[in-house]
Amino acid sequence: MFGQKPTATLSGKVFDDGNKPLSDVSVVVENFAGGTKTDENGNFNLKVPVAQIVTIVFSSIGYETKCNRYTTCTTNIGLL
After folding, report:
1. Using H for helix, E for strand and C for coil, what is the string for 9-57?
2. pLDDT tens digit string along 37-46?
3. What is the CATH number of the domain that holds 18?
4. Between vectors from CA 65 to CA 63 and to CA 70, what angle results, nearest 5°?
5. 18 inside domain
6. Which member of 25, 41, 50, 70 has the greatest number of CB atoms within 10 A?
């Protein structure tokens, strides 16, 4: 574990403008290895570095890419 930064789990749900859950949305942390996709109900779990301001990038074919900034200061973060 030497040299590895601590991580937290960011979990959330992605919706469209009509409040329908979106599946297969790519969810990544800018400038951090790894990423995930939303499941069939729009849910995701993503490892993020702790005690940093991170930019989460949400992208999917046919939709505008969204970038949101979060401060990670806890071990588990939930978004809806």
Report:
1. EEEEECECCCCCECCCCEEEECCCCCEEECCCCCEEEEEEECCEEEEEE
2. 999 999 999 8
3. 2.60.40.1120
4. 135
5. yes
6. 25
Classify residue 29: in a domain, yes or no: yes
pTM for this one? 0.79
Give 32-78 pLDDT, tens digit per residue. 888 999 999 999 998 888 878 889 999 999 989 999 887 766 544 44
Q: Which domain holds residue 70?
A: 7-78
- Three-state DSSP at 5 gives coil
pLDDT band of 3, cuts 50, 70, 90: low
Q: Are 59 and 26 in contact (CB under 8 A)?
A: yes
